[in-house]
Every structure is written in C-alpha cells, then in structure tokens.
C-alpha cells in the first residue's frame, strides 16, 4: 500500500507541481520580497523549501507558498536558487522541484551635458540602455530645453524598465542666466 501511495503521490506531484515560472526566474536587484508557490496537494502535505544563500526565506516554510528576501544577492544567476519537495502524512516525499534565480540589475546612464545658457536651443538627452523615460525641469520627451528649466542646477531622472524591473539614475544640468548689459553710456 505504501508503494502505491508513493507512486500516486509522485504521479500527482509531477502533474500538479509543473512550473509555470520561466526558469530561471528573474528577480529585480535588491528585491526584499518575492513570493514563490506550488499548487497545494491537499491536506496532510508538508512542503520543505531550501533557498540558496544569499537569499533568505522570510516566511512560509512548511506551506506551499514562501516569501524570499533577495536584497543581499549580487546581480547574476543563482543556480538552484529555490528547491521544494512535499511530504505526505505517510512520510513519502515527492521528487524535488528546483528553480534557478537570475538577479537582474540594469545600470542606466545619462550622457552628461555641459552647462547651458538659458537662451540656447533645446538639446537631445541620451540615455543607455535606450527606451527609458526622462523627467525633470525643462524636459519634454527626450529634449532638455534650458528656457523651460530653472536657472541653476536641474536634476534630470532617467527611468528604464526591463524584465519587469525598474531602474533609475539622475544627472544634473546647469542652466546659466543670460547676462544683461545696461545701455551704453557716454561719459
């Protein structure tokens, strides 16, 4: 009977535990909470999770759903980042399921712009990787227009979204006031 129960458990596990997350799973750099789960096999099952360091299992051990803190993980692939297996009330274990985790970090860069005079024409902002969004005083689309910015230092933000993760960077552009001369005097 135990062998039949183990066979049924393994068969059911292979049908129900199928991963719906793409392997490797992409996690945004410095993410403090990521939830992982497998479909419940019903009452009487205990789930044993293992999370590769530097990931920290925050909650959910024993259940079919956990919360993992990846905020200390460096960018790159964590092979066998998460493993789970189920144990039934007869102490029979399923085959473990493993998920690799890829910590995604994108470091956006804005090409610096030298100080501008308030009377100069708009200049094109360039950010890498491309496809991001610029914002800040004097910004319209990917143009910085000194006449629409503040005199002095203007902070420009560039936001890039990749793989469901959002990354930002900032730069400053100085706008100088136009010198104003008084009328010519004859002494």
What's this model, at a glance?
The chain is mainly beta and 187 residues long. Helices cover 8% and strands 43% of the residues. The chain folds into two domains: 2-104, Immunoglobulins (Immunoglobulin-like); 109-176, Immunoglobulin-like (Sandwich).
Write the layout of secondary structure elements.
Blueprint: H1 2-16, E1 25-28, E2 34-37, E3 46-51, E4 56-59, E5 65-69, E6 76-87, E7 97-104, E8 109-110, E9 116-117, E10 123-124, E11 127-128, E12 133-135, E13 139-140, E14 143-144, E15 152-162, E16 165-176
Parallel strand pairs: 1-7, 9-16
Antiparallel strand pairs: 2-5, 3-6, 4-5, 6-7, 8-11, 10-14, 12-15, 13-14, 15-16
Salient structural properties:
single chain, 187 residues, mainly beta, Immunoglobulin-like, 4-stranded mixed β-sheet, disordered N terminus
How would you describe this protein?
The structure is a single chain. 8% of the residues lie in helices and 43% in strands. Strand 4 and strand 5 form a beta hairpin. It folds into two domains: 103 residues, Immunoglobulins (Immunoglobulin-like), CATH 2.60.40.10; 68 residues, Immunoglobulin-like, CATH 2.60.40. The longest helix is centred in the first third of the chain and has 15 residues.
């Amino acid at each position: 009977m135990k062998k039949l129960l183990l066979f049924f458990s393994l068969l059911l596990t292979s049908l129900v535990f199928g991963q719906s997350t793409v392997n490797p799973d992409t996690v945004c750099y410095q993410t403090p909470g990521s939830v992982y789960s497998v479909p419940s096999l019903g009452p009487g099952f205990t789930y044993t999770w293992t999370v590769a360091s530097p990931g920290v299992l925050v909650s959910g051990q024993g259940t079919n759903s956990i919360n993992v803190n990846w905020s200390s993980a460096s960018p790159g692939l964590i092979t066998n980042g998460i493993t789970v297996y189920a144990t039934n009330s007869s102490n029979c274990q399923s085959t473990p399921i493993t998920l690799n985790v890829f910590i995604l970090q994108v470091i956006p860069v804005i090409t610096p712009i030298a100080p501008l005079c308030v009377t100069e024409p708009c200049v094109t902002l360039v950010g890498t990787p491309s496809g991001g969004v610029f914002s800040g005083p004097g910004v319209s689309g990917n143009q910085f227009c000194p006449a629409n910015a503040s005199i002095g230092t203007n902070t420009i933000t560039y936001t890039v979204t990749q793989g469901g993760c959002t990354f930002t960077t900032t730069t400053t552009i100085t706008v100088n006031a136009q010198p104003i001369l008084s009328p010519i005097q004859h002494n």
